[in-house]
Amino acid sequence: MSNKISVIDSSALLAIIYDEGENKEVQKHFDHSYMSVINATECLIVLNRNGMPMDVAQNLLESIISKFIPTEYNDILLIAEIKNSNVDIELSLGDCTCIALGNKLGLQIVTADKVWLKVKCKSNIRCIR
Predict the structure, then answer these.
(1) How far apart are CA 129 and CA 21, in angstroms?
(2) From CA 76, how far away is CA 100, in angstroms rounded?
(3) Are strands 125-127 and 67-69 parallel, antiparallel or unpaired?
(4) Of 14, 32, 50, 5, which is closest to residue 128 (Cα–Cα)?
(5) Which residue has the higher pLDDT, 74 or 23?
(6) How far is CA 18 from CA 43, 44, 52, 101, in A?
(7) What's the CATH code, domain 6-127?
(8) Which of 20, 108, 112, 126 is deepest in the core (most CB within 10 A)?
């Protein structure tokens, strides 16, 4: 078990839930994990769209993620800066919110999106693919 806290992106969580071949080493990032409520919402949408009842999906997320962090008004500047500094990379609002949360908290960010390795900002990004 790892004692390091990580911020988890929805892509990483969904990859683990759908068992997309990530090795067991990756699961250590989920032992102590934070997720933005925006990314949690993305996960609920995808899981429900793929047939999982909303309450089951919510319980699943709560069993994996240690803490859900709301986005605050003061976060908007950092989120917007990340988006505007990376116009050459297709980053969604959820992507930028996750990266901003990791930066704000000074934590490692875990994603399954390889393109995040090109993000221009101070980030400790770990791609599981």
Answers:
(1) 9
(2) 9
(3) unpaired
(4) 14
(5) 74
(6) 12, 13, 12, 24
(7) 3.40.50.1010
(8) 112
Give mean pLDDT, residues 92-112: 95
Which residues are 33's β-sheet partners? Answer: 6
How many angstroms separate the CA atoms of 2 and 90, rounded?
A: 31
Alpha carbon of residue 22 to chain centroid: 16
- pLDDT tens, position by position, 35-60: 999 999 999 999 999 999 999 999 99
**Please, what is the angle between helix 37-49 and helix 93-105, to 10°?**
140
Instruction: Please give the radius of gyration of the chain, using alpha carbons only, rounded to the nearest integer.
Output: 14
In this prediction, residue 2 has a pLDDT band, given cuts at 50, 70 and 90, of very low
Q: Is the Cβ–Cβ distance between 7 and 103 less than 8 Å?
A: no
Q: Can you give the pTM of this predicted structure?
A: 0.90
Instruction: Locate the domains of the chain by residue range.
Output: 6-127
Query: CA quadruple 71, 59, 92, 23: dihedral positive or negative?
Result: positive
